[in-house]
Amino acid sequence: MASDAKSVFVNTFNEIFSYLDFDFKFINEIPLSTLSNALQHNVLVGVSGALRGNIMFSYNQKTYQAITVGMTGIKGMDEDDIYATSSTVDLFTEFCKRLIKLFDNNENIFLSNPISISGNAIQAMISQVPSKNLFFKVNNERLAIAYYLEEN
User: Fold this and answer.
1) pLDDT, tens digit, for every residue of 6-58?
2) Which is nearest to 11 in space by CA: 95, 71, 91, 90?
3) Is 101 in contact with 16 (CB distance < 8 Å)?
4) What are residue 149's DSSP bridge partners?
5) Could you tell me if 44 and 117 are in contact, meaning their C-beta atoms sit under 8 angstroms apart?
């Protein structure tokens, strides 16, 4: 695994979000005792093979709407619209694909199908492993990436 995972995540984030017309920046990294987050919208991607763990993207309703507009070009999509949800899931799946390419040293690393978890009273705790939480600002709103990755 890359020696500086934070840099790999931040560089991948900057690359992916440079395609969208957003104001974005990395804020900080905080260690956590569990892989968890409690924002309104979440996308979870599992990693297996030579590298294993989970990556969870968490963001609020304003960020969700901005991503759906950025990905589809359609304003005012209902949050229950399958295309709106798919657009955010697709963005973070592409993020994981690019991220894993940076970690992969000609070894097999696989991504699970993403899981989208949304709601107003979400408190998601995925795993009881020490993890990292990276915080970004996207259009002045918080977007968090919680992750736990280890070499298998």
Assistant:
1) 999 999 999 999 999 899 999 999 998 888 877 889 999 999 998 899 999 99
2) 95
3) no
4) 53
5) yes
Question: Model pTM?
Answer: 0.90
CA separation for the pair 96, 102 (Å, rounded): 10
The tokens describing 55, both together, are 């990556």
Q: For 47-86, how does the pLDDT look when each residue is reduced to its tens digit (9 = 90+)?
A: 999 889 999 999 999 999 899 888 888 887 776 778 888 9
What's the chain's Rg over C-alpha atoms? 15
Q: Map the chain to HEC letters.
A: CCCCHHHHHHHHHHHHHCCCCCCEEEEEEEEECCEEECCCEEEEEEEEECEEEEEEEEECHHHHHHHHHHHHCCCCCCCCCHHHHHHHHHHHHHHHHHHHHHHCCCCCEEECCCEEEECCCCCEEEECCCEEEEEEEECCEEEEEEEEEEEC
CA dihedral 55, 61, 64, 69 (to 10 degrees): -170
The tokens describing 50, both together, are 């030579």
The token duo for 129 is 């492993």
